[in-house]
């Protein structure tokens, strides 16, 4: 059975994001996958990158360099226990699903903190092992999110610009950098401004997609896909 | 005298980011500007968007919707005191400078949390008052940051893609959305991999730029600038 990690960032279980997360757990479990959820708000996940992420002494206490210290701490096995937990979940997963409401053309800070703190050099990448040879290659990721703006606002000529523009830092800059291949994003546009019926259709569409998810080919994560 | 707010996100005062921040305080003060710094790590600024950001009762306690609750709380004057503080600083500022190390093609989570929690609907935007008619129009913003990757890696054909691609969500998606005009970003590429002399040159170049900053014209914040 395949292993899936859902990293989920919504405060309210009754939200559409909450329902999308539950549907993924249900549908993927039904398929025989083993599903783990990191419910970031429920965990009160720490988003700040600080000295507390390193157990014991610093490599260079004179001038704190977060990247260097995390790399060294990873090699010594001295990362804080919450990060070791998350890294274990990532290591075991075949697929990472990120479920969140779009905040300011990006993920909520609590999820950005997960990226900043968990995907440490040595664990997720280690130059020159980045992009296609990143340390997490052979894994898949899928960004599933809701927006405030409508699909028209996120069209190529729309005021928000093509939705793909804002996927570049998240998909290429983070996931691809670590060697992870991207499945097409799953986007629910403006659920707050549509009918209850439309919202139900959104949930059904997600359940449907999940049924054949493992047959999907990853996108070609190059500038053409984003900016063609 | 003009007012400047520097939102600063680095853990180490002795870092290049720390020096860039200090230089801005010094140079702008010398010009007669009044300069305020929000030193996010020193403040232990909270990045998570939670129920605690609203004082008193919720508008809809049945289903917590962060955006709606924050909008309502703003109108009632019921935002948590740390947010009221930050909004006051923004309101008074003519120019916002964001000083940070690039983390994963974006700002560190602690700064993303500042955006998520401070730039509330009603305060920074209120449909249809967004983009050129955003509620913070007549203000300027400048993103000043350091990178891990070199300038060549962030060139148009480089493995990281054009650095401007990753500026889209931050400059257009956040600042422009609130009506704020953008001065050209100030980027120090890969300071960790250059000589001490080169780093000194970076500091001098920033001080030099600040001397004539108020004569600069904002960029044309449209897709052409980013993806031309």
TrEMBL record, chains A, B:
Please list the reactions this protein catalyses.
1-(beta-D-ribofuranosyl)-1,4-dihydronicotinamide + a quinone + H(+) = beta-nicotinamide D-riboside + a quinol
User: Has keyword Protease?
Assistant: no
* Primary location group: cytoplasm
Q: What is its EC number?
A: 1.10.5.1
- Annotated localization: Cytoplasm
Instruction: Kindly state one GO CC term assigned in the UniProt record.
Output: cytosol
Q: Where is the Flavodoxin-like fold domain?
A: 3-210
Q: Which InterPro entries match?
A: Flavodoxin_fold, Flavoprotein-like_sf, NAD(P)H_dehydrogenase_qn
Keywords assigned by UniProt, alphabetized: Cytoplasm, FAD, Flavoprotein, Metal-binding, Oxidoreductase, Phosphoprotein, Zinc
One Pfam family of this chain: Flavodoxin_2
Q: What does this protein do?
A: The enzyme apparently serves as a quinone reductase in connection with conjugation reactions of hydroquinones involved in detoxification pathways as well as in biosynthetic processes such as the vitamin K-dependent gamma-carboxylation of glutamate residues in prothrombin synthesis.
Q: Which family does it belong to?
A: Belongs to the NAD(P)H dehydrogenase (quinone) family.
Q: How does it assemble?
A: Homodimer.
The protein in question is named Ribosyldihydronicotinamide dehydrogenase [quinone]
The UniProt gene name for this protein comes to Nqo2
């Amino acid at each position: 059975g395949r292993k899936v990690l859902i990293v989920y960032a919504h405060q309210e279980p009754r939200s559409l994001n909450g329902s999308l997360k539950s549907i993924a757990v249900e549908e993927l479990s039904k398929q025989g996958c083993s599903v783990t959820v990191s419910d970031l708000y429920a965990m009160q996940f720490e988003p700040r990158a600080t000295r507390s992420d390193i157990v014991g002494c610093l490599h260079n206490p004179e001038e704190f360099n977060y990247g260097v210290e995390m790399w060294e701490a990873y090699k010594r096995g001295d990362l804080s226990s919450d990060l070791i937990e998350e890294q274990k979940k990532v290591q075991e997963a075949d697929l990472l699903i990120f479920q969140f409401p779009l905040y300011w053309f990006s993920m909520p800070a609590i999820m950005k903190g997960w990226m900043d703190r968990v995907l440490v050099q040595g664990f997720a990448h280690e130059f020159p092992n980045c992009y296609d040879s990143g340390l997490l290659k052979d894994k898949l990721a899928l960004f599933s999110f809701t927006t405030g703006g409508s699909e028209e606002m996120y069209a190529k000529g729309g005021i928000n610009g093509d939705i793909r523009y804002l996927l570049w830092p998240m998909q290429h800059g983070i996931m691809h950098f670590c060697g992870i291949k991207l499945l097409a994003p799953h986007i629910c546009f403006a659920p707050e401004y549509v009918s209850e019926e439309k919202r139900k259709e959104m949930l059904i569409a997600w359940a449907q997609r999940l049924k054949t998810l493992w047959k999907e080919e990853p996108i070609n994560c190059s500038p053409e896909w984003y900016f063609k």
